[in-house]
Amino acid sequence: QVQLVESGGGLVQAGGSLRLSCAASGSIRSINRMGWYRQVPGNQRELVAFISSGGSTNYVDSAKGRFTISRDNAKNTVYLQMNSLKPEDTAVYYCNADITTNYYATTTYWGQGTQVAVSS
């Protein structure tokens, strides 16, 4: 069984910073792409950023220049550093990862979500 555990969310004033973490655990053989999504009530879940196993990254336009995604393969962990936060960044943030288990089955896993709230 594979589990993704998120941390780092909270309440912050506009212009502040947060660093989200998501650690994968379980019967993991390898992790390919890892990413972060966000969702607000009434909206579709939006891809924020993802990073490949080789370190290539992509960002939604609104996050470019403010957010940085990174990963620590030794810890099976992906991070999202969020700087210059804006009220429109307020959402529940979800991590996900494409993981091959020790039984050679490849599946996309999701974290439980962590709340990010940015006040004006």
Describe the protein's architecture and organization.
This protein has 120 residues and is mainly beta. The chain is built from no helices and 11 strands. It has strands at residues 2-7, 10-13, 18-26, 28-39, 46-51, 57-59, 67-72, 77-82, 91-101, 106-110, 114-119. Strands 2, 4, 5, 6, 9, 10 and 11 form a 7-stranded mixed sheet that branches. The mean pLDDT is 96.
Which structural class fits the helix and strand makeup? mainly beta
Q: How helix-rich are the residues, as a percent range?
A: under 10%
Would you count the extended β strands for me?
A: 11
Major sheet details: 7 strands, mixed
> Mean pLDDT across all residues, rounded?
96
Distance between the termini: 41 Å
Shape: elongated
Low-confidence spans: none
| Relative strand content | over 45%
Helices and strands, in order, run as: EEEEEEEEEEE
